[in-house]
């Protein structure tokens, strides 16, 4: 069993930065990738960023490129998302996810990020 616990959400202003963290516990030895998704009110959950666990290769949604940075700490089994130059449209619940293979199979409960103008 795998548990994912997000932290770091909160209320910030336009242009601010915020970092999210996700700690994975349980059966994590087979981790292939970890990533972040978000869901804004009334919208579907959308991909934000992914990092391949063994290689560190990263992928970003167009909305995140140049502003967000995903990183990992293998020893601590954590993945982080540094969000810079936040916009009101970044307001959402952010979810951490983990995949043993090329599909995400485990999800955290989410953490709220609110960007106020």
Describe this structure in words.
The chain is an all-beta fold and 117 residues long. The chain has strands at 2-7, 10-13, 18-26, 33-39, 46-52, 58-60, 68-73, 78-83, 92-99, 106-107, 111-116. Strands 2, 4, 5, 6, 9, 10 and 11 form a 7-stranded mixed β-sheet that branches. The radius of gyration is 13 Å and the shape is globular. The mean pLDDT is 96.
What kind of oligomer do you see? Answer: single chain
Percent helix among the residues? under 10%
Rg is 13 Å
What is the number of strand segments? Answer: 11
- Contiguous low-pLDDT stretches (5 residues minimum) are none
The SSE order reads EEEEEEEEEEE
Distance between the termini: 40 Å
Shape descriptor reads: globular
Q: What fraction strand?
A: over 45%
Largest sheet: 7 strands, mixed
Number of helices: 0
Task: Calculate the mean pLDDT score and round it.
Answer: 96
Structural class: mainly beta
Q: What is the topology?
A:
Layout (H helix, E strand, L loop, with lengths): L1 E6 L2 E4 L4 E9 L6 E7 L6 E7 L5 E3 L7 E6 L4 E6 L8 E8 L6 E2 L3 E6 L1
Parallel strand pairs: 2-11
Antiparallel strand pairs: 1-3, 3-8, 4-5, 4-9, 5-6, 7-8, 9-10, 9-11
Key features of this structure:
117 residues, mainly beta, 7-stranded mixed beta sheet
Provide a quick synopsis of the model.
With 117 residues, this protein is mainly beta. 0% of the residues lie in helices and 55% in strands.
